[in-house]
């Protein structure tokens, strides 16, 4: 009989991952952050257990979007009073509160429950390259872009298959 492994809720030392948002597409990077926060990238993922990592995002103001989202995407909030609806475009939000844009995107990808609210406390978003989590960072920068994946794959193949030496450049053998 095959038994399913279920992670027990235990306090563990949390690893922190640094993501650089410079020239990254908002939704793709937010997806990567949500997966890391939930722990879905680990083989021990269990839906009801917080087994994810902490995420630090830098350069939030340099994030990019596709299409016409800068002018067409609208963020709406309501104060609770009559006539208290407030709307801002993505462009206005990026100018005034760039970190909130990323936080809003990630929050929409997490569960709408106590678990999701707890996971959001492990997300730190900073404007600019400086951040306050130097002591916590354990895992190096992981953006998960296709270009990085290709580069890593090419480097791995280069190590496994070194370039052959041309026939006129054969190493000298001693007789």
- Could you spell the SSE succession in H and E letters? EHEHEEHHHEEH
Please write the CATH class name of the domain at 16-65 and 97-142: Alpha Beta
CATH architecture field of the domain at 16-65 and 97-142: Alpha-Beta Complex
Summarize the biggest pleated sheet: 4 strands, parallel
- The CATH homologous superfamily of the domain at 16-65 and 97-142 is named Ribosomal protein L13
Q: How far apart lie the N and C ends? A: 64 Å
CATH fold descriptor of the domain at 16-65 and 97-142: Ribosomal Protein L13p, Chain: A
- Find the count of extended strands (DSSP E, 2+ residues): 6
Q: Supply Rg.
A: 22 Å
Mean pLDDT: 84
| Net shape | globular
Helicity level, as a percent range? 25-40%
Tell me what portion of residues adopts beta-strand conformation.
5-15%
The secondary-structure class comes to alpha/beta
Strand order of the largest sheet: 5-2-1-6
List the uncertain runs: none
Number of helices: 6
In short:
32% of the residues lie in helices and 15% in strands.
Describe the 3D structure.
By secondary structure, this protein is of the alpha/beta class. The chain has a domain at 16-65 and 97-142: Alpha-Beta Complex (Ribosomal Protein L13p, Chain: A), CATH 3.90.1180.10. Helix content is 32%, strand content 15%. It has helices at residues 26-38, 69-72, 90-96, 98-107, 114-120, 146-160, and strands spanning 16-20, 54-58, 74-78, 85-89, 123-125, 137-139. The chain has a four-stranded parallel sheet, with helices on one face. Helix 1 (26-38) crosses helix 4 (98-107) and helix 3 packs across helix 4. The longest helix has 15 residues, at 146-160.
